[in-house]
């Protein structure tokens, strides 16, 4: 009973993370540069916006991929890969579980292996998301501290 609740909570969090990643992918505010007191420029993964205070927001898509700064190119690729991996993990978890249940395979280990593979995909997508967002941080030491703490948490949760 507890295991089913944990599985439901984990798949719900994975779906929520996938939807938030899709939303983040379209946001224009990956880098904000203040030009003057009223005007600021927002650089996103797909478009460039000019904001004049709270009144006007003019956006345009990049004319070519070469105009996009290198760090935003890399972040965009990592975010898209993250979305695809999470989608495949959700398919594996939901459809694979239903197929094994309908085929009435007596081997419980197959279900556990499918769920473990989906979990590894979710973990990989989460790490890709962390790297793409951390790429934008100014201080590398802060980014390394975050990655080290996550590594410690993951390693402490592994069975001994």
Automatic annotation (TrEMBL):
InterPro entries referenced in this protein's UniProt entry, alphabetically: Claudin (IPR006187), PMP22/EMP/MP20/Claudin (IPR004031)
GO terms for cellular component: bicellular tight junction; plasma membrane
Signal sequence segment: none
Membrane topology term: Multi-pass membrane protein
Domain of life: Eukaryota
Residue ranges of the TM segments: 12-30, 74-95, 116-135
Keyword Magnesium in annotation: no
Main subcellular localisation: other
Location of the protein in the cell: Cell junction, Tight junction; Cell membrane
Key words of the record: Cell junction, Cell membrane, Membrane, Tight junction, Transmembrane, Transmembrane helix
Keyword Membrane: yes
MF-aspect GO terms: structural molecule activity
Family as reported in the entry's similarity comment: Belongs to the claudin family.
Family annotation (PANTHER family): CLAUDIN
This protein's name: Claudin
Species of origin: Neotoma lepida (Desert woodrat)
